Amino acid sequence: SLFDEPLAIAVQGLGPRQQVTLRTSLRDETGQLFQASAHYQAGDDGELDLARCPALPGGSFSGLEPMGLLWALQPQKPFWRLVKRDVQSPFLLQLEVFEGHGERPGQLLAQAQHERAFLRDGVRRVPVREGRIRATLFLPP
Q: What region holds the Acyl-CoA thioester hydrolase/bile acid-CoA amino acid N-acetyltransferase domain (predicted)?
């Protein structure tokens, strides 16, 4: 998906009202780790849709925040900032589902990877150098 588009996150196949912890992580271009986690409870049908299920207290955020696992990413190194320097390569987002809540994650139940791209297919990147001006022009297909 594109970095500025909403991401729908859902988990299926859980037990009715099963408690789980979801964790996201990514590494920036320098290799620094950013992570966020949230506690959830699946519905009666064993499904967890972040657009409908609020995060419970105790994680990086709480409440109904469908994109919370992305905006709440925090660096492991203090005062580090998530900055994208090369927009031609995507961020690789790791998604993990663990059993239960608590300080230490329980058993890993599921995991997935997702690419968050910055350029739509077909976009041309044109460097601009005119006098003292240095810029990049992005042209749609």
A: 4-130
